[in-house]
Each structure stands twice: as C-alpha cells, then as structure tokens.
Amino acid sequence: PIPKTQRAAVSDDPSGFKIKEIPVVQPDQLEPGRALVKVLYSGVCHTDLHVIKNEWPVHPERPCIAGHEGSGIIVAINDATSQFKVGDRVGIKWIATSCNECDFCLAGNEPLCLQAKCSGINAQGSFMQYCPAYTSQLTRIPDGLDMAEAAPILCAGVTVWKALKNSKARAGQYVCIPGAGGGLGSLALQYARYMGISTIAIDSGAEKKALCEKYGASAFIDFKEVTDIVSAVKAATPDGLGPQAAIITSPKPEAYLIAMEYIRPGGTVVAVGLPPAGAYVKADVFFTVLHNKNLVSSYVGNRLDANEALDIVAKGHVTCPIVVEPFDSLDSFYTRMAQGTLAGRGVIDLWN
Ligand code: 8ID
Ligand code: ZN
User: Fold this and answer.
1) 205 and 337 housed in the same domain
2) Which residue owns the Cα nearest ligand 1 atom 2?
3) Domain tally for the chain?
4) pLDDT at 277
5) Which segments within 218-265 are labelled E, that is strand?
6) Are residues 261 and 329 in the same domain?
7) 179 CB within 6 A, ligand 1
8) Are residues 289 and 170 in the same domain?
C-alpha cells in the first residue's frame, strides 16, 4: 500500500532545508506522463550543495526538493505509451524531463532542450520517499546492479562518462582529473581506466590519495601542498609534455586557472565542475593557438549515455565508492562535502 505521507528534504527558503512529513501524490492523482517512484537511495551531488547555498546564477523554484541521483522502484504509473511499468527499477537524473521532439532532443542533446526541467530546480528531486517523476527521462537500472551503487551513476557517473567521450582521449593516453577524490572524480578515474586511459589525479589529503591510487591513478598531486601544479602535471606524463586532456571535476575556480597551461599541445580541457558565478577559465591566447589547445564543456549526458554508464558498472568495470548513511545524514554530507573531507560519494538511504 502507498502511504498518505512521506519524509522529504524540503527547502522553503535559501537558509537551507528541513526533513519534513509531506503528502504522497496518490496513484489516482498522478499527472499524465508521470510515474510514482519509491526512492530507495539517493546520491548527494555537489550541485545540490551549490543550489542550497544559493551560489549559482540559477535558483530553484521554492519550496523545492533537491536530489538527482535517485534509484528506486515504480509503484504507480500514468503513462500508457511508456516502456516502463509498475515494479521496474529506475533512476532519477538531473534532467527530469525533456520534450524529446525539438532539434536538441532529436539530436540526442536533451540537456539543451528548452522544455527541460531539472530535479531540484523546477521538478521535485529524489530526496523524498515517493517522487512523482516524469517518465520521459527515467532511466532503467540494469538487473543485478546494487541500488545504492547505481544511484551516483545517475549524475556523477553519466557526467564523467560523457566528459571522457567529449575529451577525445584514447587508450594509451593520459587524462588529468582535478577533483579526483570526490564523487565525479573518483568515477572518472575508473571510467578512464576502463577506456585504457592513464590518469593523473589532483586532490588533497591522505584518504583521497589512497582512493585515487586504488582506482589506478598513475600520480597524485596534492593541490594544498604542491605549489607548481602545472609542472607537476606535465612531469607526470612520460614525455613531460602533459596529458591529452583534463576533466575538471573540481567545484572551485582555481582548477580552471591552470588547466589550459598543463594540457599537451593539441589537447583538450573539458569543463565540468561548476564553481559559483564569476569563475573564469584562463587561457593564454597566443599559446592556445600555437599549441592548438581546445576548451570544451560537458553537461551531464543523454539517455543513452546514462544507460551506458550504468551498464559499465553493472558489468563490474567501475565500482561506485559510496558512503551510505541514513536520510538524516543529508546535512552532514553537505558539511563534509563543503569541507572537502568526503572521499567518494555520499548516498542517503531514504528508509533508514
Ligand atoms: O554536468 C555537469 N557539468 C556536472 C554534473 C554534476 C556535477 C557538473 N557537476 C559539478 C558540481 O556542481 C560541482 O561543481 O561538478 C563539481 C563536482 O561535483 P562533485 O564531484 O559532486 O563534488 P565533490 O564530491 O565535492 O568533489 C569535488 C572534489 O574537488 C576537490 C575536493 O577536494 C573534492 O574531492 N577540489 C577542490 I574543493 N578544490 C580543488 C582544486 N583546486 C579540488 N581538486 C583539485 N583542485
Ligand atoms: Zn549532480
């Protein structure tokens, strides 16, 4: 039976959020194109922290419920044309819905759809026990994949998988990952390894160093200890010319000031981390041209990217470095993330 009320992390104003008892949308109240998803686990992305702290130029429609790395089970559905049915294991992503008919959607670039809604911004996210999710962007979770491990793949995993593809780096080459000990970064190290790409990790502290080395990083550069990071990154490649690409997964602007300098001639910097407004990428124009360097960006991924990212985890090529704690730990996860003391990805258990 579906209960009348549920626990949800509701943000009424920019001061933060409270875990409250709120009504559950009942099956007969579900709007067309929606599925009621019983959320089991939700990853805690740094994006939710930026939004909660109100430090982005995009602000949520409050009251809002954040969370965009949800894994759960469909308990009701109001969509006769959907491939999904009650009982299916599904994921809730950052892109909550898209029109799937505009030029962007048709080209597989749903994140650019003008009708797209984002979980926690203008659609309810996964920090609630029963989410009335749009069916248009639900993701199927492969059989046998642990639901807690699946959760972070819905944002962190798909994002870095797509970013690595956008980097054009190939097997045998090197990629530098600033933020390598965090949620996105620790997955990026592993997707890169799966692609046959060597990694250079940048982050800070012994715990993150150990995590990065466990995931195959060929070098770890501590950004709080090393003063000349540019030289250290270049020196970590066999010929000293620098890595083919950098996937910037750091939420701080500093990482964007040096990446164009340390990538290899012909290489590519992929902007992924989203520091507060006012951060800039620094690129010396003369050497950007003479060394033919590229700057691209990567914004989550499409439905196929999500399926691929999950499939790679389901097959055991990537493991999700999760720290699972009860729903009440959400605030504490934010604190640890803000302090930079959380290695891997925090995941909340909505039912504990
Ligand atoms: O689609 C996208 N582009 C997308 C998708 C999902 C998330 C972008 N993001 C953005 C988030 O909004 C956030 O800005 O990616 C960034 C990283 O998200 P995350 O992985 O969820 O954050 P985290 O788990 O806190 O990890 C960040 C790591 O960066 C390190 C920290 O120590 C932490 O381990 N770090 C910091 I803070 N400053 C650094 C620096 N200067 C740094 N690492 C290297 N250099
Ligand atoms: Zn995210």
Assistant:
1) no
2) 299
3) 2
4) 86
5) 219-222, 245-248
6) no
7) yes
8) yes
For residue 202 and ligand 1, the question of a CB distance below 6 A is answered with yes
Residue 226 CB less than 6 A away from ligand 1: no
| Rounded Cα–Cα distance for residues 331 and 225 (Å) | 29
Per the DSSP assignment, residues forming a β-bridge with 42 are 70, 348
How close is the Cα of 284 to the center of ligand 2, in Å? 30
Q: Give the mutation target among 272, 336, 345 for probing the ligand 1 site: most ligand atoms within 8 A of CB.
A: 272
Expressed in angstroms, the distance from the first to the final Cα of the chain is: 19
Together in a domain, 124 and 163: no
Span 90-125, pLDDT tens digits: 999 999 999 999 999 999 999 999 999 999 999 999
Mean pLDDT of 147-174: 98
Residue that is last in its domain, among 297, 314, 341? 297
Helix orientation angle between 206-214 and 183-194, rounded to the nearest 10 degrees: 20
The whole-number pLDDT of residue 154 equals: 98
Range of the domain at 37: 5-155+302-349
User: 299 CB less than 6 Å from ligand 1?
Assistant: yes
Provide the ipTM: 0.99
Residues 116 and 182 in one domain: no
Mean per-residue pLDDT, 297-314:
98
Is the CB–ligand 1 distance for residue 42 below 6 Å? no
pLDDT band at 55 (very low <50, low <70, confident <90, very high): confident
DSSP-derived secondary structure for 129-155: SEEEEEGGG-EEPPTT--HHHHGGGGT
Residues 271 and 167 placed together within one structural domain of the fold: yes
